[in-house]
Design a protein that fits this description.
Helix 1 crosses helix 6 (131-160). The protein has one domain. The protein has six helices and no strands. The chain is elongated. The longest helix has 34 residues, at 3-36. The chain starts with a helix and ends with a helix. Helix content is 88%, strand content 0%.
Length: 161
């Protein structure tokens, strides 16, 4: 394979993994935010954020869905959001740290966890048919492919030594 293509693919992999890590950090922060902000405050914040959009277009699908979803926020939902976001974020940050250090064991482990994330996102898609779940799946699947290609390349390099 052309070395320029390998370099480009590796750079795309690094960027994708770094973005996954940043996403993991945001999920951890979001988990704590979900835990420490009251349901009433969350509903108020969501209404404040979408107020302008709804004043321009009262039928805006995304803004209306956010307001509707905010009405279901409860203490149980907060705990679920915390546990889900926190654990998901910690796993991502942990895996990203080792992928960027090129630890061989982390590649198959990351592939397994990213595939599990896709499975959960597919399940969530069956519940609410949000196109965002499919976008996330596409991005996660791309990262899985890039991780597999990097793993294969790193394994070959190690065998040559």
């Amino acid at each position: 394979m052309d070395s320029n293509i390998k370099i480009l693919r590796h750079r795309i992999f690094q960027i994708g993994v770094i973005l996954k890590g940043l996403d993991g950090i945001l999920e951890i922060l979001g988990g704590f935010l979900a835990l420490f902000v009251s349901p009433e405050a969350m509903r108020g914040l969501i209404r404040l954020l979408v107020r302008h959009e709804l004043s321009e277009d009262p039928t805006d699908i995304i803004a209306s869905a956010l307001v509707k979803a905010s009405s279901r926020i409860s203490v149980n939902v907060q705990w679920f959001a915390f546990l889900y976001l926190f654990s998901h974020g910690v796993i991502k940050v942990f895996l990203v740290a080792f992928l960027l250090r090129r630890k061989l064991w982390s590649y198959p482990v990351a592939i397994i966890f990213f595939a599990l994330f896709i499975a959960y996102q597919l399940y969530r898609y069956t519940l609410d048919y949000s196109p965002w779940w499919m976008v996330l799946n596409g991005l996660d699947f791309s990262i899985i492919i890039l991780t597999w290609l990097e793993y294969r390349e790193l394994s070959r390099d190690l065998l040559k030594q």
